[in-house]
């Protein structure tokens, strides 16, 4: 189960996302569902199609399945998803 304490160790694909802050002003306010993730990019399906955004420089709000909202710094997520999922939590702090 995804919780605020372990969200960094889980798959992000399928979660609702809102970009609350970004170094690229045109990305602020993008909402949608994460459909793909690579080391440096998130692909978001929004009402206007697919948007690719860099993780670095983002502050994102994730909507977890239990309706919890969580603000995450995108730089914490910069690594290959398969490596991030298998890491110990103490390495992400």
TrEMBL record:
What's the source species for this entry? Methanochimaera problematica
Q: What class of enzyme is it?
A: hydrolase
Which cellular component terms (GO) are annotated to the entry?
cytoplasm; ribonuclease P complex
Keyword hit for tRNA processing: yes
User: Which protein family is named in the record?
Assistant: Belongs to the eukaryotic/archaeal RNase P protein component 1 family.
Q: Which HAMAP family did the record assign?
A: RNase_P_1 (MF_00754)
| Enzyme Commission number, as recorded | 3.1.26.5
Please give a single GO biological process term from the UniProt record: tRNA 5'-leader removal
Q: Could you describe the subunit structure of this protein?
A: Consists of a catalytic RNA component and at least 4-5 protein subunits.
Q: Where in the cell is it found?
A: Cytoplasm
**InterPro entries from the UniProt entry:** RNase_P/MRP_Rpp29_sf, RNP1, Rof/RNase_P-like, Rpp29/RNP1
**What does the function comment of this entry state?**
Part of ribonuclease P, a protein complex that generates mature tRNA molecules by cleaving their 5'-ends.
Which GO molecular-function terms appear in the entry? ribonuclease P activity; RNA binding
For this entry, the protein name equals: Ribonuclease P protein component 1
Q: Which reaction does it catalyse?
A: Endonucleolytic cleavage of RNA, removing 5'-extranucleotides from tRNA precursor
Q: Which UniProt keywords apply?
A: Cytoplasm, Endonuclease, Hydrolase, Nuclease, tRNA processing
């Amino acid at each position: 189960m995804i919780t605020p304490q372990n969200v960094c160790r889980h798959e992000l694909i399928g979660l609702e996302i809102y970009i609350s802050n970004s170094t690229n002003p045109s990305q602020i306010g993008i909402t949608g569902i994460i459909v793909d993730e690579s080391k440096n990019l998130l692909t978001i399906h929004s009402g206007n199609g697919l948007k690719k955004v860099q993780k670095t420089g983002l502050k994102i709000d994730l909507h977890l399945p239990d309706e919890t909202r969580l603000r995450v710094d995108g730089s914490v997520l910069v690594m290959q998803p398969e490596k991030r999922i298998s890491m110990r939590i103490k390495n992400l702090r």
